[in-house]
Amino acid sequence: MNEILVRCHDVAKHFGPARAVDGLDLVLERGRLTALIGPSGCGKTTLLRLLAGFEALDRGWIELAGHRVAEHGRTVPPEQRRIGMVFQDYALFPHLTVAQNVGFGLRDARGREKRVAGWLERVGLGGLAERYPHELSGGQQQRVALARALAPEPELLLLDEPFSNLDAGLRARVRDEVREILEEAGTTVVLVTHDREEALTLADQVAVMGAGRILQVGSPEDLYRCPATPGVAALLGQVNLLRGEALGSVARCDLGEVSLLDPQRGPVLLMLRPEWLSLEPASHEGAPGACRVLRTTYHGAFWLVAVRLAAGTELRVQTQTRPRVRPGDRACVQAVHAAACWSQSAAPRESLAPARRPSGIPLAEGQPARVPR
Ligand SMILES: Nc1ncnc2c1ncn2[C@@H]1O[C@H](COP(=O)(O)OP(=O)(O)OP(=O)(O)O)[C@@H](O)[C@H]1O
């Protein structure tokens, strides 16, 4: 484990009746990138503002590099925290050139020009120092904002959805570039994002937030494979949910016997990602996994086939090649990967309850399918 840079303990911030942050605990290791992901309004931006010192907390404390920077009644101001921040809209100064923007936070005039030039080279904008923000593309503005935040060498960099204004093509490229720049600088980063792919691809650790608290923290792979609740599972990818009976390392369910990622006993809710399932055309009615095809959708790199099991459960299966089935066909679903599962006798408290939908309305992407009782 790396040295710990930030500790948040029981942090709370209320705005009147809105409990924006409500008893939050979080630890950030130095030099690592943490992606903070959660539904709209769960308190992500408020947490960044508390870390930066733009808000005073109501309860708990925050430590930065071993110093208590916030507790009830005491807040170290932002300029004394050595924290950099990049906002969604980059917030560049429109009347300052690229070089002046990047040099803005550098108090010491000695060597300023050299440092600014160095940062502009690092973010690939060496030739654009004298341009104004309106003369730059979105991706270039994003890199200026990053250089401006990094130039004073902050202990901690806070990124609030910094890629959301970029189109899909540019986004992937800028994201890769930013990752390289941050890795090279060795900066500790908190990245707020709504984009699960961004969270999974960029982060060393992912922190899932819901209703003002951290619901789960872990490596991208651990959270994707073993989410703590169905809501966490749905935030990080598409899910299929099935009821079953766990018998140790396997569980019995409508797909027959499926392996479990973690041994369990008793009634369980099973979670299988669409790519953890396979589909075979035709099946005997009543055989495990027997289903009817509802629809197929093309997603570029893969297809998704929606099917309904005899018991009524809707599942989505991902295929890498064009499916050999059409809507209305009989087929058979099988699990080709172990399932995650949650005990139903000691069900985890679900503060990220999946959104309810009226029957007949197609499931939104990432929303768990309904599981008939
Ligand atoms: N200055 C404020 N005054 C009153 N309520 C606020 C204020 N700032 C945030 N809130 C409320 O606190 C809650 C958390 O807001 P916050 O912006 O932190 O959420 P978020 O997770 O960043 O949302 P989003 O993903 O939509 O940006 C919301 O209910 C919001 O309305």
TrEMBL record:
<keyword id="KW-0406">Ion transport</keyword>
<dbReference type="GO" id="GO:0043190">
    <property type="term" value="C:ATP-binding cassette (ABC) transporter complex"/>
</dbReference>
<dbReference type="InterPro" id="IPR008995">
    <property type="entry name" value="Mo/tungstate-bd_C_term_dom"/>
</dbReference>
<dbReference type="GO" id="GO:0016887">
    <property type="term" value="F:ATP hydrolysis activity"/>
</dbReference>
<dbReference type="InterPro" id="IPR003593">
    <property type="entry name" value="AAA+_ATPase"/>
</dbReference>
<keyword id="KW-0067">ATP-binding</keyword>
<dbReference type="GO" id="GO:0015408">
    <property type="term" value="F:ABC-type ferric iron transporter activity"/>
</dbReference>
<feature type="domain" description="ABC transporter">
    <location>
        <begin position="6"/>
        <end position="236"/>
    </location>
</feature>
<dbReference type="InterPro" id="IPR017871">
    <property type="entry name" value="ABC_transporter-like_CS"/>
</dbReference>
<keyword id="KW-0410">Iron transport</keyword>
<dbReference type="Pfam" id="PF00005">
    <property type="entry name" value="ABC_tran"/>
</dbReference>
<keyword id="KW-0547">Nucleotide-binding</keyword>
<dbReference type="InterPro" id="IPR050093">
    <property type="entry name" value="ABC_SmlMolc_Importer"/>
</dbReference>
<dbReference type="InterPro" id="IPR015853">
    <property type="entry name" value="ABC_transpr_FbpC"/>
</dbReference>
<feature type="region of interest" description="Disordered">
    <location>
        <begin position="346"/>
        <end position="373"/>
    </location>
</feature>
<protein>
    <recommendedName>
        <fullName>ABC-type quaternary amine transporter</fullName>
        <ecNumber>7.6.2.9</ecNumber>
    </recommendedName>
</protein>
<dbReference type="Pfam" id="PF08402">
    <property type="entry name" value="TOBE_2"/>
</dbReference>
<dbReference type="GO" id="GO:0005524">
    <property type="term" value="F:ATP binding"/>
</dbReference>
<dbReference type="InterPro" id="IPR013611">
    <property type="entry name" value="Transp-assoc_OB_typ2"/>
</dbReference>
<dbReference type="GO" id="GO:0015418">
    <property type="term" value="F:ABC-type quaternary ammonium compound transporting activity"/>
</dbReference>
<dbReference type="InterPro" id="IPR003439">
    <property type="entry name" value="ABC_transporter-like_ATP-bd"/>
</dbReference>
<keyword id="KW-0813">Transport</keyword>
<keyword id="KW-1003">Cell membrane</keyword>
<keyword id="KW-0408">Iron</keyword>
<dbReference type="InterPro" id="IPR027417">
    <property type="entry name" value="P-loop_NTPase"/>
</dbReference>
<keyword id="KW-0472">Membrane</keyword>
